[in-house]
Amino acid sequence: MSAPELSPVRHPIDVRSLTSYLHSLTPESKGTTLGVNVPDFSKYKKLDIQQFKFGQSNPTYLLTDVDTGRQFVLRKKPSPNAKLVSKSAHAVEREFFMLRSIGLLNRDPESKGNVPVPEVYLLCEDESIIGYVFYLMEYINGIQIKNPEMIGVSPEDKKLYWKSIVETISAIHLLDTTKLIAELPPSHYPQFQNLDKLKKSTYFQRQVRTLSGIANLQNKVVDPIPSFQENCEWLLRRAPKDPAKLTLIHGDLKIDNVLFDPKKKVVIGVLDWELCTIGHPLFDLANFLQPFQLPNQLNKKMSGSDTTIGSENQDSIDFIYKVLGDYSKKVTWDPQDPSNNPIDHWLLGYVFGLLRLCVITQGIAMRSKQGNASSGNAAAYGSFYPFLADLAIKGIEEYEARRRSSKF
C-alpha cells in the first residue's frame, strides 16, 4: 500500500511550452476543450515534472507547482496521431470526455450512486503544444493497493475496502447511460449515437471484432497470440447476451486503477477510463477478480510481489463467489432472465479477460520492440501473452466440463 510510484521522466515533454500554453489559456484557445471547473493556471509559474511508473499505454505525469505545491496529472498519447498503430487504443480524448460526463452525473441528485473520479480540467488536441494530444486533471491524494490480497491489512479493514469496491463497481453499472451519452460528444463516441444499431450486436461480438483487428496489426511486428482465433470463436458461441439495460463498463477495472483513502478505507478515485464502453458488466467483474483465478506463480510474476492468492487456493475461489454474490444484491442484469448473472458466467468472463489481456500484453511487446513502451516493466509484461493464451484454453476446458456436469 502506497501512493502511486513516481520515477524520473522516461518520455520527456516540453514543460516550457506547456507552461506557456497554460498561462495563455482562454475558453477560445485553439484545439482545447475545458472542464467544468478550470483552475487559473497563470498562478503557477514553474512546474516540476515526474512520470508515474504506471501507464502501460499512455504516459502519465505528475506536475507540481514549485511555489504553491499545487499538483496536477497530465496524461498523453505515446505518439503523435499520425504514428499510432491503432488510434482507438490510445484515445485519451474519450477518457477525458468520459471523466467529465461521469463528474456531471455525480452532481445529479437522481443518481443511484457516486462514481469517484478525478475532475478533468482541459483536453488539448493541438499537437503543436507538446507534440502529443494530452489532457490535464486533478491529482487525487490516495493510495494504491496493488495486490488484491491486501497483505498486511487487517481482516476488518479488508472488509471495508472490499465493501467500497463492490459499491463502486455497482455504481458504475447503475449509471444512467441515457444521461451519460447525452453529455458525450458524438464526434468521439459515434458508436453511441445509434442505440438501435448498437443493440443488434452483443458486447462480446463487438469486443472480439475489435481485439482481432488489433491483434492482426500487432502480428506484423511480434509473434501472434497462440490459438487466438479458435478461442475467440468459442467465446462467441458461449457468450451471454447483453443486459436488458444498456450498461457502462469501465473496460480496465482492476485494483491498481483504483485509489483508496487509507483512513476511511474507501475508494476515492477510479482511473484509466480509456477503454470504457457500453457493454456487459461481466467483464469488469472478471477483470477485477482475475488474480484470484490465475495461478499463484503467475500472480507473483505479474505483481512483482509475494502473494498466496490463486486458483490453487480454495479460499481464493470462494472469495470470488462471495464478491459476486455481494454485487448481485445491488445489481440485477436482467430481471426477466435470471440465467444472465455473474456467478453462472464467471469462468466465461475469466476466459474473455485472458484473451483481452493477451492482446494488451502483445501490444506492450510490440511497443517494447519498437522502443516506445511507456512502462519501465514493459519487457516483462510483453512476455506474458503466450502463457495467458494457454490459460485461456484451460479455462475453456473447465467451463465445458462444468457445463457437462451442470455445476454452474
From TrEMBL:
Matching PROSITE patterns: PROTEIN_KINASE_DOM, PROTEIN_KINASE_ST
Keyword annotations of the record: Kinase, Transferase
Entry superkingdom: Eukaryota
Domain Protein kinase intervals: 46-408
Molecular function GO terms recorded: ATP binding; protein kinase activity
Xref: Pfam families: APH
UniProt keyword Plastid, yes or no: no
Keyword Cell membrane attributed: no
Protein name: Protein serine/threonine kinase activity
Organism: Scheffersomyces stipitis (strain ATCC 58785 / CBS 6054 / NBRC 10063 / NRRL Y-11545)
